[in-house]
Amino acid sequence: MSKTYLFIDGTNLYAGQYELVGPHRYVDFSSFIGEIEKKIRTAFDKIYFYASYSPKSKHPTHKEKLYLKNEALFYRSVKNTKRTIFFTGYRSKTSGKEKEVDVKLAVDIVDFAHRNYYDRMYFISGDADFMHGLNLAKKLKKKVYVLALENRIPIRFTYNFKTYIFVSKNSKLHSRRFEHQQKIAIVPFNIESFVRSIA
Fold it and tell me: What predicted TM-score, i.e. pTM, was given to this entire model?
């Protein structure tokens, strides 16, 4: 039986949704996934989500506290979503940079392809650093697709993979022409319909 997996660069997705709806609101992940599945007419057998929590400073400002609360609520909605496996990386104590997440994500994409765990994979990230992993999955005869928010478009991916860009009603992207237009699908997406307010 054909299997379809969704791999998500969770830290990148969180930052994208924060830019669109934050800091006083966050996207309910389960509703977000349901809408994507409906729009692209695909059901994900498993969802792999990779992220790390932002570090908290010794004397956090109100803005930082709000950001951390927003992040925690978003990630909680991810963990409460069926079919989802949440991999938690960590942040360097000295630089604050994310560790393990990108490597784990890239390795899983390739490793699972080698093991024939999936036949089709979808990928969410605005980071083109994952190009090599996606290309390897493609070489292993897996069908590879990219999903992107309108503010996180990985342009390099659009040259090699069918890319669905989810855009709001008033987005200028509806009329934008991309160099490889045949590989891009602009998908109307009402993100406001599954946004939750922070009390």
Answer: 0.92
Residues 110 and 133 sit within 8 Å (Cβ to Cβ): yes
**What CATH number is given to the structural domain containing 25?**
3.40.50.1010
Collapsing DSSP to helix, strand or coil, 88 comes out as strand
Position 52 pLDDT exceeds 90: yes
Q: Count structural domains, the chain.
A: 1
In the chain, the DSSP E strands lie at 4-9, 25-27, 46-51, 84-88, 90-91, 98-99, 120-124, 143-149, 162-167, 184-188, 195-197
Q: What is the mean pLDDT of residues 29-44?
A: 96
How far is Cα 115 from Cα 195, in angstroms, rounded to an integer?
Answer: 37
User: What is each CA distance from 109 to 20, 102, 142, 144, 147, in whole angstroms?
Assistant: 28, 11, 10, 10, 15
Q: Is the peptide bond before 154 cis (omega within 30 degrees of 0)?
A: no
Q: What pLDDT, on the 0 to 100 scale, is given for residue 77? A: 97
Which domain does 122 fall in, by range? Answer: 4-197
Of 12 and 181, the structure prediction assigns the larger pLDDT to 12
- Tell me what pLDDT residue 97 has: 74
